Amino acid sequence: SHVLILLSPRSENILFGMGNPLLDISAVVDKDFLDKYGLKPNDQILAEDKHKALFDEIVKKNKVEYHAGGSTQNSVKIAQWMIQKPHKVATFFGCIGKDHFGEILKKKAAEAHVDAHYYEQNEEPTGTCAACITGDNRSLVANLAAANCYKKEKHLDLDSNWELVEKAKVYYIAGFFLTVSPESILKVAKHASDNNKVFCMNLSAPFISQFFKEPLMKVMPYVDILFGNETEAATFAKEQGFETDDITEIAKKTQNLPKENKKRQRVVVFTQGKDDTVATKVTMFPVLDIDQNDIVDTNGAGDAFVGGFLSELVQERSLEECIRAGHYAANVIIRRVGCTFPEKPDFH
Hints:
alpha/beta, nine-stranded mixed beta sheet, PfkB_dom, ATP-binding, Carboh/pur_kinase_PfkB_CS, nucleotide-binding
């Protein structure tokens, strides 16, 4: 059994992710474009009717780029990239359409060596996310479409799929998926909690804490590690009536929210862009310095941080190492367009 212990942290399907698989459509835009569609420079929102024309318009921009996206899918890809071998360390579930964009997502997942099992349907086309870049800000507008059609009973509950859930030791689902299938999240979260495995979640965007508070707080007792950035943390604190805007205090109060599995104390990790990352238990971690001129695109930085973190977590490393890997991955990603990465990591 000794050899098994050495191998186990890097076995296939040890990391499980479930979320909205989207094709990112990135373009550099100007302030007029943001104003026209009522967008904040740095935000994530769900597309409404008034944004329909935005998608047509952004595609006509001179330098538009297409990348496989979706917050959770980005994070598990980065984790796989950091780990390198074996392939298929990470499993991913989500819903796509039977169309060209869906084929691109399948191809990109395979190239990243992620074991993606998509629920494919033809009611809705594959989801897209417009990434409107201005300087080092990114405003994301997600048209979920097919991603919103994920069905627990049609996919997650199937024996062949649930077996992959059971194989995992670490689970990660971005808060974005709360708008799609909270019942799927709860089933996975309860499985993790009942089996003393690690369930991770992300606050993902201010609108989740504001408008999806009920499903978020239903899952919270099962959350072992909660991620978020400073804006999301502030919104969450306000919605929960924490009456503080001190990020360290918010982290502590979040840590102390009710928890099912008492064997694991909740860990809360809040990133703050170029400022120190705050984590409960160990407090502040400085990020790697970067010259503003080297920042190409901050889209995907948060997802990359989580991916780096998870890559060390599945290998049972310390919180400090997890955060160091997160900072490394984010630092690599912001030098590139979209959530893309070089062939191999250079992390020691």
